[in-house]
Design goal:
The chain is mainly α. About 80% of the residues lie in helices and about 0% in strands. Pfam families: EamA.
Length: about 300
């Protein structure tokens, strides 16, 4: 017979995994809806305008919920330069991502985006003084092979969209490293507030460089709102999933985004289901799991 304490612990683990799965279902839906909304907005707004409206909607939501829950006091920070650094990386990466979803198949965008954790594992030793291990180097090699399978240089044209998606992953890596540093001193609500405020200002400044700012019309407005809401719900769902279960459980769930968005791309935009994209994503997933298992053992 097993000890009651062990049974209770196992039941708690299962409960956490179920909660994590439910939260990741919301995250996958949010990311997928944001990609579709970004594709639909590509012909109406430029990426800077999309980011401006996304951030303004997010700021209104954060302020409204913060006022209702008494969390506005959490927005104070002594690390504004660190917030600025984080948001520069995230703003650049998100603009590149919105550009990519408008010009290349959605499955390729998501597959290339999944290299972000591998870039984090490679660069963390230089930024956060972590150790660069052989496992991390092997994982990076698998990720690089996965990128080659997804993009297939020489066999298919590699355009600006592929480069944008790959660079977006690098920028998201900078965002992750900066967030990891900030999370030691600032709360999630603080990070969300300064993210929406700073990126609204960045988006507005970049959008007005040409002297014009396109307003959403009746056709584009629903997609603008979808981008703004999904950007926040995706962050909330992933954060909640990681709080409910270990990253080793959550990360493979996130990769379910790829087959889903591939089916969405096929259904809405006649994008082909390519075996090479799934094979490349599998190598990237293997590299990410190697890093997670290595970190779990440590």
């Amino acid at each position: 017979m097993s000890a009651p304490g062990l049974e209770t612990h196992a039941a708690a683990d299962r409960s956490g995994e179920i909660r994590a799965a439910l939260w990741m279902t919301g995250a996958i839906a949010s990311f997928s809806l944001m990609a579709v909304a970004g594709r639909e907005l590509a012909g109406h707004l430029d990426t800077f305008e999309i980011m401006t409206y996304r951030s303004l909607i997010g700021l209104v939501v954060v302020l409204g919920l913060g006022a209702a829950t008494g969390r506005l006091r959490d927005i104070r920070t002594r690390r504004l330069p660190a917030h600025l650094c984080r948001n520069l990386f995230h703003f650049a990466g998100q603009n590149l991502w919105f550009y990519a979803v408008g010009v290349i198949p959605l499955a390729q965008v998501f597959a290339l985006e999944f290299t972000t954790p591998i870039w984090v594992a490679l660069l963390a030793p230089f930024v956060l003084a972590e150790r660069l291990t052989r496992t991390r180097l092997i994982a990076a090699g698998l990720g690089f092979l996965g990128i080659l399978l997804v993009a297939r240089p020489g066999l298919t044209p590699v355009g600006p969209g592929h480069l944008a998606a790959a660079l977006a992953a690098v920028c998201f890596c900078g965002n992750v490293l900066a967030t990891k540093s900030l999370s030691g001193t600032d709360r999630v609500w603080t990070i969300l507030f300064w993210m929406t405020l700073m990126q609204a200002a960045m988006g507005l400044a970049c959008a007005l460089v040409d002297g014009t700012m396109t307003l959403p019309d009746a056709t584009s407005l629903p997609f603008v709102v979808a981008v703004g809401i999904c950007g926040l719900t995706a962050h909330l769902c992933v954060t909640s999933a990681l709080a409910a279960a270990p990253a080793l459980i959550v990360a493979p769930m996130d990769f379910l985004r790829l087959p889903l968005i591939a089916l969405v791309g096929m259904a809405l935009y006649d994008e082909p289901l390519e075996i090479a994209v799934f094979a490349g994503a599998g190598l990237i997933l293997a590299g990410n799991l190697m890093n997670l298992r290595s970190g779990g053992r440590r």
